[in-house]
Design brief:
By secondary structure, the protein is of the alpha+beta class. The strands form 3 sheets. Strands 1, 2, 3, 4 and 5 form a 5-stranded antiparallel sheet that branches.
Length: 341
């Protein structure tokens, strides 16, 4: 018997046409920006807009491919059959890998969104386990770009506040990078500087994510995850406000002032803004540095942070969350005297 040809349900077909149209529209818009708007947009703004359109096109393409994969791979299978359960697990894994690649290529907020989704544990386990591999590490920006942010936030003569300022960053992630500096008072500080286009990029990318989540909910009413990009946007808005982070740090310092085992870096408010955070610099090692633990005579398998975690929870402290490995982690640094940062 000749099998009946497969046809997408009308609603799915319309959705795919809309997604395809979105890809075409973003590509056309990128071309238009390239050819007609050079005179009205600065090179930096133009580049950010074009890159945003390219990221959107990739995201729409990934979602469209995933819809096709689910429709074709599961057609004709009974939902209560072993074959269906096996097939849908395979499609989940393929789709998760597809979105992992999307996040890695698009970088920035897509990486953070992937980590956020993995940490929520609301999607099938194939998604959570796959997306948990995302790492929030990027190549640093040239110092001339960072210098512009410092001028805008600290004033054109900001260099007069420092004895020295290292142009090479000591760390770089998707929204900011950190530079070591020394004040005129010889105090060492760490300066966290937000990338200049981050706010614009967050708005662009979260709108794309919300559009795609609404489209999926329309195609598959049983999967309603529109709240995810909204929750992610709220989380990122707080993370992008360095004044909010500085206040939380001071709150932590106040609540932990009687604990000699915990160090909380001092905030330098005259060198802090929404885009720049300046704090006391500490030199230490990560808690998972096994060689350093061995030098201290500490057996790694006996390191127990449960008391630290309990203390933090009892003090009702609020730290920026690092979504990594599907766990909400507080990055801990250990010093030679055994104290923690």
């Amino acid at each position: 018997m000749t099998p009946k040809p497969f046809n997408f349900p009308a609603k799915r077909r319309t959705g795919l046409l809309l997604l395809t149209a979105a890809v075409a529209a973003t590509a056309a818009a990128a071309q238009a920006s390239n050819t007609h708007e050079l005179s009205s947009l600065s090179a930096g703004k133009l580049g950010a807009e074009v890159h945003g359109l390219v990221r959107t096109a990739r995201a729409v393409s990934a979602v469209a491919s995933t819809v096709v994969d689910y429709e074709f791979s599961l057609r004709g299978l009974r939902k209560d059959s072993d074959q269906y359960r096996h097939s849908i697990s395979e499609v989940h894994l393929r789709s998760a890998k597809r979105f992992l690649k999307l996040c890695e290529v698009n970088k920035g907020f897509y990486v953070k969104a992937g980590q956020f989704v993995a940490a929520q544990r609301v999607l099938p386990k194939e998604y959570s386990s796959t997306l948990s591999a995302l790492q929030d590490q990027v190549a640093p920006l040239p110092f001339k770009v960072i210098k512009g942010v410092l001028k805008d936030n600290l004033g054109p003569d900001f260099t007069e506040m420092f004895e020295s300022l290292d142009e090479e960053p000591i760390a770089a992630a998707s929204i900011a990078q950190v530079h070591h500096a020394v004040l005129k008072s010889d105090q060492e500080v760490a300066i966290k500087v937000q990338y200049p286009w981050v706010q614009q990029q967050m708005t662009f990318d979260t709108r794309t994510m919300y559009f795609l989540s609404k489209t999926i909910a329309w195609l598959y009413p049983q999967y309603r995850f529109e709240w995810l990009p909204l929750a992610f946007a709220d989380s990122m808005a707080a993370e992008l406000d360095f004044i909010h982070e500085a206040r939380n740090s001071e709150r932590a310092a106040k609540n932990l002032r009687n604990n000699k085992l915990i160090r909380v870096p001092h905030v330098f408010w005259d060198l802090t803004s929404r885009q720049v955070l300046t704090m006391q610099f500490y030199t230490g090692r990560k808690i998972d540095d096994l060689d350093f633990l061995n030098q201290l005579g500490v057996e790694p398998e006996k390191v127990d942070l449960s008391q630290f975690t309990t203390m933090v929870n009892s003090c009702k402290l609020y730290f920026p969350v690092l979504y990594s490995g599907c766990n909400k982690l507080i990055v801990v640094t250990i010093f030679a005297d055994g104290s923690l940062l």
